[in-house]
Design goal:
With 106 residues, the protein is mostly beta strands. 0% of the residues lie in helices and 42% in strands.
């Protein structure tokens, strides 16, 4: 299972997202597109329509994060990785534009 908190600029309020019973290859998209699994509201121009994608690899039992989608990087990058997939560790903190995301493996 994956638990994600998206903090607002004031770092006090947040939205919580839980993903349970994940299947192999499952994608969680994060961006300003309303179709994204996690839809972020954008006040400036720092977050892409699909900014970051999380993918579950059931065989290795890990989540991976990749900036952008299908080889196209996001507008401002994802501070953890710019082009390569990396494994997600518990309590990983991501910064996408002005938004802070805390990812927890549960």
């Amino acid at each position: 299972s994956l638990h994600i908190k998206v903090y607002e600029k004031d770092n006090e309020r947040y939205m919580k997202y839980d993903f349970h019973n994940c299947s192999n290859g499952q994608l969680i998209s994060i961006g300003t597109d309303e179709k994204c699994s996690i839809h972020l509201l954008e006040e400036g121009n720092t977050i892409s329509t699909i900014h970051t994608v999380l993918t579950y690899d059931k065989e290795r039992d890990i989540w991976e994060i990749m900036d952008g989608i299908e080889g196209k990087p996001s507008i401002s990058g994802t501070w953890v990785a710019l082009d390569n997939k990396i494994g997600i560790e518990d309590e990983l903190i991501l910064k996408l534009g002005d938004d802070i995301l805390k990812v927890m493996l549960i």
